[in-house]
């Protein structure tokens, strides 16, 4: 047993001495910030600021108004949650009540001529179907947003797979 301990101690000393000593790691120096088009790197950080210097408080854009056309929009990318085609001002969605379910629950959708919520909203995390909406899907506005007249701040360059395939066939 003593020989094993001595061998282990010698091996440990050799390993530690091989790891220590040597040269210190090289110091990494951050490159100087590039000067942008306006000559000031602080101003080139974010174009979403609408060319207002970062040191100045920006005036917020006016609140977008909800479109109330009751028309469904196409989706901008796969698996995008549908947008809400009507105003939800005054809708109560909290622990005790979900106003959305008045029209969109399975039991009421036909009566109100509203789209029924997806069957996935009735599944728990183990993919078991529940009689009521799953607690993790209960708060609709976690994923779904109201359609508004707001202009996009950033262009959407998404191309659906069908569009990609069509353009390849055309070539």
TrEMBL record:
This is Periplasmic nitrate reductase, electron transfer subunit. GO terms for biological process: anaerobic respiration. It is found in: Periplasm. One of its GO terms (molecular function) is metal ion binding. Keywords: Electron transport, Heme, Iron, Metal-binding, Periplasm, Signal, Transport. The keyword Signal applies. InterPro entries: Multihaem_cyt_sf, NapB. It holds the Pfam family NapB. Electron transfer subunit of the periplasmic nitrate reductase complex NapAB. Receives electrons from the membrane-anchored tetraheme c-type NapC protein and transfers these to NapA subunit, thus allowing electron flow between membrane and periplasm. Essential for periplasmic nitrate reduction with nitrate as the terminal electron acceptor. One of its GO terms (cellular component) is periplasmic space. It comes from the Bacteria. Belongs to the NapB family. The keyword Nucleotidyltransferase does not apply.
């Amino acid at each position: 047993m003593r020989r094993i301990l001595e061998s282990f101690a010698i091996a440990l000393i050799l390993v530690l001495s091989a790891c220590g000593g040597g040269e210190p790691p090289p110091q990494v120096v951050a490159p100087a910030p590039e000067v942008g088009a306006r000559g000031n790197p602080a101003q080139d950080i974010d174009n979403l600021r609408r060319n207002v210097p970062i040191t100045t408080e920006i005036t917020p854009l006016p609140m977008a108004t909800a479109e109330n056309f009751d028309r469904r929009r196409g989706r901008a990318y796969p698996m995008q949650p549908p947008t809400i085609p009507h105003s939800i001002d005054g809708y109560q969605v909290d622990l005790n009540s979900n106003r959305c379910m008045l029209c969109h629950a399975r039991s009421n959708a036909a009566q109100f001529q509203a789209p029924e919520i997806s069957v996935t909203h009735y599944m728990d995390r183990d993919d078991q179907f529940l009689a009521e909406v799953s607690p993790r899907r209960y708060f609709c506005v976690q994923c779904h947003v109201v359609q508004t007249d707001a202009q996009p701040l950033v262009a959407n360059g998404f191309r659906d797979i069908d569009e990609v395939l069509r353009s390849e066939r055309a070539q």
